[in-house]
Every structure is written in structure tokens, then in C-alpha cells.
Write a structure and sequence with these properties.
This protein has about 325 residues and is an alpha+beta fold. It has two domains: about 30 residues; about 280 residues, Ribonuclease Z/Hydroxyacylglutathione hydrolase-like (Metallo-beta-lactamase, Chain A, 4-Layer Sandwich). It contains eleven helices and 18 strands. A seven-stranded mixed sheet has the order 1-2-4-5-6-9-10. The protein has a seven-stranded mixed sheet with strand order 11-12-13-14-16-17-18. It has a two-stranded antiparallel sheet with strand order 3-15. The N terminus is likely disordered.
């Protein structure tokens, strides 16, 4: 009896002390705010920082083609997931030492207040300001990649030059393509809102074909998902990384079955062919890959599997070099 009483007294004292020392912590319920998503690592002389713009739910039963809900659920279950899944929106900062270069800009304010739009929080946490960004490499002009360019119609990155493939500029600024290619008109409206302010300011440089844009950074056209979809390769001191944009959206289903396409594709057949080509090339070359929608931080390698490919994330590292 005495021992039980002593235990009760000790527990009561601990509860009082805990509540005094940590007034915002309640026993049984701990509310912790999500911290910004920031993951830096070295690539030769460059520093690459993955910046999370947040996540958003995706209903694969309605979005995917060349599959069916039963097959989709089988692939999801194999990866311990259920529909709908949560998709990452990853942005990448390349600090070359001389320039700060963003690959994509996230969704900005174009989705609901709780979905995406967290790039500025992550950028600040990484120690950078929007005014310090010298260049922005758009993998393509879809709002979850270009939405962060503007806020309330104003340039978020006033000192940056925006690089984007000419075929994407030509496509998204010709509204007749909505009818020609059966693409929702909202994408053309959003392109006008996100990219046109930079066009009007003379801050957009378009390119065609494989192009060296900046020291150590090269654009590679990978059309399909959009006509001007591009990947970017950053290389320094014999190390390199490829930024893939929307070559892949959903790792759990498209790595094992690259033929599965998504409703966001402008040309689904070309997108699937491009994905198969890039998967095979990445697996053979063992190059480091960064994906805009792969689970944060979205950096890793591809490995051949019995069915398609496996995604092998890099080891997490947090220590001084």
C-alpha cells in the first residue's frame, strides 16, 4: 500500500513539474508543429538544398491510366500505402558559390491554403532570401512547378532570370492548344498568371534542345508530359545530379510499371515512352536523381527489379562535413 502511495505521489509531482517546465506540453497529447522541410548536401563544389513546398493528396483511382483500381491498390499495398496517397512537392536550390539557382518554385498560392505554398518558409529556414535567387529553371509550366514565381501578381524573385524550354512557352501561351490537345483552359490561365509577369519584365530566357545554361548546369529536353518538359543536370568536380520534374509522379506505381500515365500528361503516350527511356538510362548510368514529386527529399537512384524498377533513396545524413 505504501509503495503504491509513493508511486502516486511521485507521478503527481512529475506531472506538476512537467506542467511548470513545459506549459505547452500536456500529458497524453503533444501538439508539435511541422518544421520546414530542408535537406542540404554537397555535390562537388556545389551545395544542393531540397526545399519542401508541402504535400497534397492525390486520388490515383481517378488520375491514372493504363491501369485499374484493383491493380493500383495492389501496387500501393505492396508499398504500405492506400489510396489516396500524399504527394510531395519538392523544389531544389543549387548554390554554385557564385549563384543561387532554383529548380522549380512549387505551387505558391494557387492551391488551397493548406496545400503547397511552403517554399518561402523552407527557403528562409535554409538561410536564403528570394532576392538572392539569381536563376530559376522551370522543368515545365504547370502550376505546382511555376506557381511560386508570383504572389498577388507580383514577382516573388525580382532578381531572377527564368529559364524554360521554348516549346513550353509556345504551347502554354497559345490558348488554341486547349482545344487542339483537349487540355483544361485553367492551365493556360495559370501560365499567364505565373510566367507572363516575368516575360513582361524581360526576365525569361527560353531555350531549345540540349543547352548549357549556366556554368555546370545543362538543360536536357524530355518532352512528353508537356511539349517543353526538361530535365536539368548539375555537375561539379566529377559528381552530378539530374532534376527530373515530372518524369515520374507516383513512385509506388510508376517505378514498377512505367507505362502507367497520369491525367496531367499533355501527351500520355509520349510521357510513358519518355519515362521508360529515362528510367533505363538512369539505371544503367547509376546517376543521382532528384524528383519533384518523390517522397521528400526525393533524391536517390534507380535499380532494376523483377517488375520495372526500385527507387533507392539516398542515406539520410545530418552531420558536419
Amino acid at each position: 500500500m505504501f509503495s503504491k502511495l509513493m508511486i502516486a505521489v511521485i507521478v503527481a509531482v512529475l506531472m506538476i513539474v512537467t506542467s511548470c517546465l513545459f506549459p505547452t506540453v500536456s500529458l497524453g497529447k503533444i501538439a508539435i508543429a511541422q518544421v520546414p522541410g530542408v535537406y542540404p548536401f554537397k555535390l562537388g563544389d556545389f551545395t544542393i538544398t531540397v526545399l519542401s513546398d508541402g504535400t497534397l493528396p492525390q486520388d490515383l483511382h481517378t488520375l491514372l491510366s493504363n491501369t485499374n483500381p484493383t491493380e493500383t491498390d495492389r501496387l500501393l499495398q505492396k508499398n504500405f500505402l492506400t489510396n489516396p496517397i500524399e504527394a510531395s512537392i519538392n523544389v531544389f536550390l543549387i548554390d554554385t558559390g557564385d549563384q543561387q539557382v532554383l529548380v522549380d518554385t512549387g505551387a505558391g498560392t494557387f492551391f488551397s491554403p493548406k496545400l503547397g505554398g511552403k517554399l518561402q518558409t523552407s527557403l528562409k529556414a535554409a538561410g536564403y532570401a528570394p532576392s538572392e535567387v539569381d536563376a530559376i529553371l522551370l522543368t515545365h509550366i504547370h502550376t505546382d512547378h511555376s506557381g511560386g514565381l508570383v504572389k498577388a501578381g507580383q514577382l516573388v524573385f525580382p532578381n531572377a532570370t527564368v529559364y524554360v524550354a521554348k516549346p513550353d512557352v509556345d504551347f502554354w501561351f497559345d490558348r488554341a492548344n486547349a482545344t487542339r490537345f483537349n487540355v483544361a483552359e485553367k492551365y493556360f490561365d495559370e501560365a499567364a498568371k505565373t510566367v507572363k509577369p516575368y516575360l513582361d519584365a524581360g526576365k525569361v530566357k527560353s531555350f531549345s534542345g540540349k543547352t548549357a545554361l549556366l556554368p555546370g548546369i545543362t538543360a536536357h529536353p524530355t518532352p512528353g508530359h508537356t511539349p517543353g518538359h526538361s530535365c536539368y543536370v548539375a555537375a561539379s568536380k566529377g559528381e552530378s545530379i539530374e532534376f527530373w520534374g515530372d518524369i515520374v509522379h507516383f513512385a509506388s506505381v510508376q517505378f514498377p510499371k512505367p507505362e502507367i500515365t497520369v491525367a496531367y500528361d499533355v501527351d500520355a503516350i509520349a510521357a510513358a515512352a519518355q519515362r521508360k527511356k529515362q528510367f533505363a538510362r538512369a539505371e544503367a548510368s547509376r546517376i543521382l536523381v532528384a524528383g519533384a514529386h518523390l517522397p521528400f527529399p526525393g533524391v536517390g537512384h534507380l535499380r532494376a527489379a523483377d517488375q520495372g524498377y526500385d527507387w533507392v533513396p539516398v542515406d539520410y545524413r545530418w552531420r558536419e562535413p
